[in-house]
């Protein structure tokens, strides 16, 4: 079975000249530094999945000369730099690889499965004769992350070796793969729906969609569209029926995903004031690693924007040659140019979402360099920069819809919404400094940062001040009380996580009401110099919008963050529930009482099985021992966690069939996290994959949960098969 030819034919690329050039291969110059350059021969393999490089190294094994195209990502840190002999050759490689990556992304689950099986087959076929001996077959199973009892493997091997050559080839490998990938739980679910029949009729599918999947739109139209989309058999399609293959394709598709397909697009009202939305926000966006000595990079801004982030942070300081720089002040993090960061933001701001980007400026520059900053902002961002009030928006914040395609500045400002003193206002004035570095109250931290002067006054240039419109930074003076004017709608305060938690504890409802009409920004405590994160959930429960996390640090906090913002088309803005947008709200996340938010639900989750969990330990003989944890995040009363048993030595198709029941009282604030780990008795469990889904985006019925890697990228084919029900 030739997967490469399949791939080209499937996507109509068999005569594509870029791919033909890659299949022929060419000499390219590999560059590691200005002094290290070597010529190498690179060639796309027939499978259209791997690239072979011919090296002069004598000790090289055949596998070490192959690398997978799936490993090529736009924003990876390890780069392979190659120079082509001509622009035409370079073009073939760039366009050819783009086509393969694009079409791989558009493959359905079954094509991905075949593709994945092929890459494992290729690695296992040591002598490259396209046949599988029993020993190679055992290697193949290890690549698939499956431990099969030798006698069982031998039995399947003999059943499939119809030619009796003591090796499997072509159709025999296909038959072996079929026996291996048979899914009993799908057979069982299909039989429940189809009764004794071999196929599902439209009526049977409608019944399944109504009673099991709880699809609101269940009816003949939906059933027929699913048959049209997922049924591979043309005969069955013509008879308006769905086979078991089509049923599996549907369950593995976006329509059968545990995350609601309808929530993969923007479906919420985007016309409300900015303060009514949670906003995907990053802290010290320029950092790739820790807060004290790690690298700063424009790459970090691009990564955050590509993940849907809508609020970025820029710490600006005087640089050489009158060019402002960005770095973490008083530390040893590396420095980047302010103008380079603005160019990266301009180029990537609206690739993932059309809704506004807020630049949170922490300004430590002298007047001269502030004026340079203002010039760069105007020249580089041009019409994207919002530098004047929107018509008619004078007493509440504008909406994401009104600000589409716009970049807003958050920073210090002289005077109110209108520039002070008309045209001939002052050229500069003194404002209080807003400096997170000043929050480094921890002695151990202070001893590791450079000497910081105790100065909290800053002279602010009028040109820069005038560019701040709706996000004027102020020091928080307390929540408004009757008879006091309180904060203007365009003024916003920043709180360290500890101060925010204290305010939530002391006056939870006051904070909720404040956040109805004002933006609040929360940032990590000063002691988190390792760039660790705090839980964003408590801040969201209090209605805080700009909850800034270290996007560069993977972990449960970022998992939950990405899960929350996967909602509403991953556009970076999620509308808060009605009880967090009501100026007279009585909701207090720290002292729950009855109210419109209280809607007790019983959530049942049956974790049935897992599919193709990736190997964590690169050791050839290591197979994973997976266990699943289901967590509920939300108000403290709803927080819960349950675990399955450990399945030993099977990452390919582990089977748990374990049911958990949870009670949730504030469903609007709840998220469900599915975590899969490789159990280790002697040390910390290894992370395999996870998926976090807001409860309101969780679909009922038989569903696949598509797992993400530690960095939040989709695993090609790792899933959990679950059954979900939600009852009043």
UniProtKB/TrEMBL annotation:
- Annotated PI-PLC Y-box domain residues: 464-581
Which residues of this UniProt protein bind Ca(2+) 4?
623, 625, 649
| EC main group | hydrolase
Q: Any idea which residues are catalytic in this one? A: 283, 328
> What EC identifiers does the entry list?
3.1.4.11
Q: Give the matching Pfam families.
A: C2, EF-hand_like, PI-PLC-X, PI-PLC-Y
Describe the reaction catalysed, as an equation.
Answer: a 1,2-diacyl-sn-glycero-3-phospho-(1D-myo-inositol) + H2O = 1D-myo-inositol 1-phosphate + a 1,2-diacyl-sn-glycerol + H(+); a 1,2-diacyl-sn-glycero-3-phospho-(1D-myo-inositol-4,5-bisphosphate) + H2O = 1D-myo-inositol 1,4,5-trisphosphate + a 1,2-diacyl-sn-glycerol + H(+)
> Which keywords describe this protein according to UniProt?
Calcium, Glycoprotein, Hydrolase, Lipid degradation, Lipid metabolism, Metal-binding, Transducer
Q: What is this protein called?
A: Phosphoinositide phospholipase C
This protein's species is Rhinopithecus bieti
């Amino acid at each position: 079975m030739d997967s490469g030819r399949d791939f080209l034919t499937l996507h109509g690329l068999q005569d594509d000249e870029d791919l033909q050039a890659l299949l022929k291969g060419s000499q390219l110059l590999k560059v590691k530094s200005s002094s290290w350059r070597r010529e190498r021969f690179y060639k796309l393999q027939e499978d259209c999945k791997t690239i072979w490089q011919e090296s002069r190294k004598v000790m090289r094994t055949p596998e070490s000369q192959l690398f997978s195209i799936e490993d090529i990502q736009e924003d990876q840190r390890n780069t392979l730099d190659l120079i082509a002999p001509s622009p035409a050759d370079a073009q073939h490689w760039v366009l050819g690889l783009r086509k393969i990556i694009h079409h791989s992304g558009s493959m359905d689950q079954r094509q991905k499965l075949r593709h994945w099986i092929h890459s494992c087959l290729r690695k296992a076929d040591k002598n490259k004769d396209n046949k599988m001996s029993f020993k190679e077959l055992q290697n193949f199973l290890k690549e698939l992350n499956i431990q099969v009892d030798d006698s069982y493997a031998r039995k399947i091997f003999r059943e499939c070796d119809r030619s009796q050559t003591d090796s499997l080839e072509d159709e025999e490998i296909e038959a072996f793969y079929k026996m291996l990938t048979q899914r009993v739980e799908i057979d069982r679910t299909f039989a429940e729906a189809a009764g004794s029949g071999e196929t599902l009729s439209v009526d049977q599918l409608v019944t399944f969609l109504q009673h099991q999947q709880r699809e609101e739109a269940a009816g003949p139209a939906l059933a027929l569209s699913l048959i049209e989309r997922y049924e591979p058999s043309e005969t069955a399609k013509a008879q308006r029926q769905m086979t078991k293959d089509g049923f599996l394709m549907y369950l593995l598709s976006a329509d059968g995903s545990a995350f609601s397909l309808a929530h993969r697009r923007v479906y919420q009202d985007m016309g409300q004031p900015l303060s009514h939305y949670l906003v995907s926000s990053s802290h010290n966006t320029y950092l790739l690693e820790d807060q004290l000595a790690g690298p700063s990079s424009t790459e970090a801004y691009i990564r955050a924007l590509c993940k849907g982030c809508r609020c970025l942070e820029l710490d600006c300081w005087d640089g050489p040659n009158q060019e402002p720089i960005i770095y973490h002040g008083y530390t040893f993090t590396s420095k980047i140019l302010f103008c380079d960061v603005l160019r990266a933001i301009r180029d990537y701001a609206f690739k993932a979402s059309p809704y506004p980007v807020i630049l949170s400026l922490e300004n430590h520059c002298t007047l001269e360099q502030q004026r340079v900053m203002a010039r760069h902002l105007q020249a580089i961002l041009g019409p994207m920069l919002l530098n004047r009030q929107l018509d008619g928006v004078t007493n509440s914040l504008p909406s994401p819809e009104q600000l589409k395609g716009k970049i807003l500045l958050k920073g210090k400002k002289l005077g109110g919404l209108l520039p002070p003193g008309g045209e001939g206002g002052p050229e500069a004035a003194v404002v209080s400094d807003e400096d997170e570095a000043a929050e480094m109250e921890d002695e151990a931290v202070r001893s590791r940062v450079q000497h910081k002067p105790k100065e909290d006054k800053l002279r602010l240039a009028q040109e820069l001040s005038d560019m701040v419109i709706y996000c004027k930074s102020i020091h928080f003076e307390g929540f408004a009380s009757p008879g006091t004017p309180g904060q203007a709608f365009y003024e916003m305060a920043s709180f360290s996580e500890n101060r925010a938690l204290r305010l939530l504890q002391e006056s939870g409802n006051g904070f909720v009401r404040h956040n109805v009409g004002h933006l609040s920004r929360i940032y990590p405590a000063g002691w988190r110099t390792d760039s660790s994160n705090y839980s964003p959930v408590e801040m969201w429960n209090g209605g805080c919008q700009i909850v800034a996390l270290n996007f560069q640090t993977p972990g449960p906090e970022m998992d939950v963050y990405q899960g929350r913002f996967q909602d509403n088309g991953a556009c970076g803005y999620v509308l808060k529930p009605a009880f967090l947008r009501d100026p007279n709200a009585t909701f207090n996340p720290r002292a729950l009482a009855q109210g419109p938010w209280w809607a007790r639900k019983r959530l049942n989750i049956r974790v049935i099985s897992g599919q193709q969990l990736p190997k964590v330990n690169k050791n050839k003989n290591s197979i994973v021992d997976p266990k699943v944890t289901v967590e509920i995040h939300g108000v403290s009363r709803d927080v819960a966690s349950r675990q399955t048993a450990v399945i030993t030595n099977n990452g390919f198709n582990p089977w748990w069939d374990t049911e958990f029941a949870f009670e949730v009282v504030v469903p609007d604030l709840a998220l469900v996290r599915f975590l899969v780990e490789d159990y280790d008795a002697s040390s910390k469990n290894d992370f395999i994959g996870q998926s976090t889904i807001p409860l309101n985006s969780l679909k009922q019925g038989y569903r696949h949960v598509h797992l993400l890697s530690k960095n939040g990228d989709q695993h090609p084919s790792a899933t959990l098969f679950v059954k979900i029900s939600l009852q009043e």
